[in-house]
Amino acid sequence: MKLLVTGGAGFIGSNFIRYWLKKYPNDKIVNLDKLTYAGHLSSTKDFSDNPKCTFIKGDICSSELVHEIMKAIDIVVHFAAESHVDRSIVGPATFVKTNILGTQVLLDAAVKNKVKRFHHVSTDEVFGSLPLNSKAKFSEKTIYDPKSPYSASKAASDHLVRAYHNTYGLDITITNTSNNYGPYQDPEKFLPRMITNLIDDKEIPIYGDGKYVRDWIYVEDHCRAIDIVLQKAKVGETYLVGGLTKDVNNLQIAKKLLKIFRYDESYLKFVKDRPGHDRRYAVNWSKIKLELGWKPKYDFDTWLERTVEWYKYNEWWWRPIKKEAEKLYAKTGQK
Ligand SMILES: NC(=O)c1ccc[n+]([C@@H]2O[C@H](COP(=O)([O-])OP(=O)(O)OC[C@H]3O[C@@H](n4cnc5c(N)ncnc54)[C@H](O)[C@@H]3O)[C@@H](O)[C@H]2O)c1
């Protein structure tokens, strides 16, 4: 089997390639990544010499390149995207280009080259926001209501993927997943930013009142969910994928981290809120559990601690990236 993984130098994509090469050592992988600010060859260092994995630096919006690569591909797993909500507020145009147009270019090439499966990796943010203190959860039946340029561009890409299934008969599947955490996540994202600040004995910024609830999934659980969907799902289906957290808010997570580092609450720094900040996401993952037998394995408290350990032992990876990450927050005033 030959896979095209897009965005394989990013956080989840690199973890997915690592997972796949270990589980299916005879498969071949082409990793197509533009190496934007979010793509790091250092994230692929441990498998860059593997003869089964080829890296191509390129843009998913380049139709000619994508068509050429797709000629020899059986399965596409599409991660490549602009993925940071804060950046989408500062500059939405790139999000529209990569997330919508780039997905369409890939879909076109997949149809023309008759790929066996196009798996699209998406987010629970396409469903908008749930009220705090409610028990409601997103499900596959929830109506799309994206609120940020990032989630709107991902919502559009989901619709395109389904449209290519209905219109051209492309065999697709989609997963909409909650917030991932784990190794190799860029230090400009919420959890790694807090962890790396604490390693450096610096305060940790909390947006607004900190009462923003997210569902958190350990990245390997997400990779396993995509694997099971590729092996067992009915073509054309969408699955919501979530973790084992129960309505934990950002402030509570910050306090968990302070406890791990044995620091007191003077390290908390409340900063200007993100405009249009969604209050709460919660994911009902019973469809993937009932139909395909997947459920998350990794509990948040244990794997948060292991993630902290990973950042402590892998400064070589995040230190060169951290400086760049902080420039963004200087621009948004969320410093
Ligand atoms: N991180 C999360 O918590 C989360 C949750 C749900 C869904 N997702 C989705 O999963 C996917 C991966 O997320 P991530 O957190 O790993 O993102 P990331 O920002 O860490 O990585 C994105 C990768 O895509 C590459 N890329 C960007 N534009 C490209 C282009 N035009 N052509 C080729 N490559 C390009 C980047 O260089 C980078 O390596 C995204 O589609 C995202 O929407 C992420």
CATH level-4 homologous superfamily of the largest domain: NAD(P)-binding Rossmann-like Domain
What oligomeric state do the depicted chains represent? single chain
Overall residue-averaged pLDDT value: 95
Q: What's the total helix number?
A: 11
How many strand units? 13
Net shape = globular
The CATH topology of the largest domain: Rossmann fold
Task: Supply the CATH class of the largest domain.
Answer: Alpha Beta
What is the helix fraction of residues, given as a range? 40-55%
Instruction: Give the tally of structural domains.
Output: 2
Instruction: Name the ligand types.
Output: nicotinamide-adenine-dinucleotide
Q: Tell me what portion of residues adopts beta-strand conformation.
A: 15-25%
Largest sheet: 7 strands, parallel
Note the gap between the termini.
Answer: 46 Å
Name the strands of the widest sheet in spatial order.
3-2-1-4-5-6-11
Per CATH, which architecture of the largest domain?
3-Layer(aba) Sandwich
Query: Structural class of the helices, strands and pairings?
Result: alpha/beta
Tell me the radius of gyration.
Answer: 19 Å
Features:
335 residues, alpha/beta, Rossmann fold, UDP-galactose 4-epimerase, domain 1, 2 domains, seven-stranded parallel β-sheet, two-stranded parallel ribbon, 13 strands, globular, binds nicotinamide-adenine-dinucleotide
Description:
The protein is an alpha/beta fold and 335 residues long. It has two domains: 2-180 and 215-241, Rossmann fold, CATH 3.40.50; 184-213 and 245-275 and 299-327, UDP-galactose 4-epimerase, domain 1 (Alpha-Beta Complex). The protein is 42% helix and 16% strand. The chain has helices spanning 11-23, 63-70, 85-90, 93-112, 149-168, 190-199, 219-232, 250-261, 286-292, 300-313, 315-332, and strands at residues 2-6, 28-33, 53-57, 75-78, 117-123, 172-177, 179-181, 204-207, 213-214, 216-218, 238-241, 248-249, 268-271. The strands form four sheets. It has a seven-stranded parallel β-sheet, sandwiched between helices. The N and C termini lie far apart (46 Å). The protein binds nicotinamide-adenine-dinucleotide. Nicotinamide-adenine-dinucleotide is lined by residues 6-7, 9-13, 32-36, 38-39, 59-61, 79-83, 98, 102, 121-123, 154, 177, 179-180, 186.
